[in-house]
Amino acid sequence: MNNSAWQQLNERRERIKERVKQNLEARKAKLKSNTFDFKPFSVKQKKVLTWWCSDSPVKDCDGIIADGSIRSGKTMSMSLSYVFWAMSTFNQNNFGMAGKTIGSFRRNVVFWLKLMIRSRGYKIKDHRSDNMLEITKGDVTNYFYIFGGKDERSQDLIQGITLAGMFFDEVAIMPESFVNQATGRCSVTGSKFWFNCNPDNPRHWFKINWIDKCKCNLSTDAAAELIKKGIELKNLVYLHFTMDDNLSLDEKIKKRYKSMYVGVFFKRFILGLWCVADGLVYSMFDENKHIIRGECPKSGMHIVSVDYGTVNPFSAGLWGFDGKRAIREKEIYYNGREKGQRVDDEAYYKMLKELIGKTKIEYIIVDPSAASFIETIKKHGEYIVKKANNDVLDGIRVVTTFLNSGRLLIHENCKNSIEEFGLYCWNEESGEDKVIKENDHAMDDIRYFCYTFMRKWLRWEY
Fold it and tell me: Residue 363 class from Cβ within 10 Å (0-12 exposed, 13-18 middle, 19+ buried)?
């Protein structure tokens, strides 16, 4: 790579660093000023903010569910209304708030919640060691504990506490056991539940056990039929949001978000529909759009991604990245079953060296379960190793976004990758968002590359 290309890439990096620094300084300044620039609320946001008030016809409901598209204003209005309700109804009580992880909840909810409620005259102390917000206004003080609902073990974290209310942000990505345990802790008279989420599979437990049993969603006959079967209905308010319910978004921003997703992710994140993931995972892959023929363009840096297999095929790709587009320039695809000979980690390492050749690479992204192969690479000391982020659904979503924007390309020599793009399918019979575990080895190493390396470039493009 010539010096000019490196200089351009370094200049781009410096601009990104400066933008991050400016954003952080702006956040700090806003936090210090205790102000928040409220935009006009939409009709649905106003319903979220007032459903519990004394003159509301649904004030006696046990809680509220807000689902729908991304960037639709659900989280802001839900979190703000939750605190207003708690502070208007209780004093010296404990409340719960949960996201997938405590870190993500603090980033996505708590930061903005602090700004909003301070601007309304509330005082807030953040006890970070206890993951608790102490909120005061006048003579009223309540305590809001933050929990992470990441996996089945999360239910253990919330046992024992008595709550007057519980707010779940992105409840559809939490395990049912955690939600059941958390709602079971709300034993104070007058306690209520607050749920918001983006849609998932229509057979998802939250859709079946909560949304589909909302009394307000059912006709009189349908409700009577369920009651006759002994099914207990949920006395909850249900509101469905779209991006049009967020009045702070202009049409240009909406158009930009709509361009980021296709297929099942467009239906869920943009249209806000609970829909099945079916057919090809990457139905947007187009040989005329995504395949590079002839010589590869020059790239600023190179990365290698690896899906490790001894019984299953071993797949690795050499990627060139120019600051915007990534091209899979070469690949290895070794199937021990077809070859009739399984090989060891040293043989795979030799294949990897042949793939890389004299190319200078930043690092090798490796399947995190490939402990022995990671140790083999480290032992030789020639390359830096980074364990891949192996979140399947989020990884697929990121790959989809880059394919849709034309920023992920495959060289014509990468025959196995091209073949797998036409075979990689959703498992429609599983009842969950799962892929068929066949024809997926190049797909896995491509997903590792996109979700571990390319993902950080998304925010600057969009």
Answer: middle
Residues of the chain with pLDDT below 70 are: 1-6, 27-36, 336-340, 458-462
Nearest-10 Cα torsion for 213, 216, 219, 224 = 50
Determine the pLDDT at residue 461: 46
Q: What are phi and psi of 349, to 5 degrees?
A: -65, -40
Closest CA relative to residue 302, chosen from 380, 245, 363: 363
Query: Angle 114-118-119 (CA atoms, 0-180°, nearest 5)?
Result: 120
Helix, strand, or coil (residue 226): helix
CA–CA separation, 340 vs 89, rounded Å?
71
At 384-424, the pLDDT tens digits run 999 999 899 999 999 999 999 999 999 999 999 999 999 99
What Cα–Cα distance (Å) separates residue 353 from each residue in 199, 326, 377, 403? 44, 21, 10, 28
**What is the residue type of 228?**
K
Crossing angle of helices 3-33 and 111-119, rounded to 10°: 40
pTM of the model: 0.77
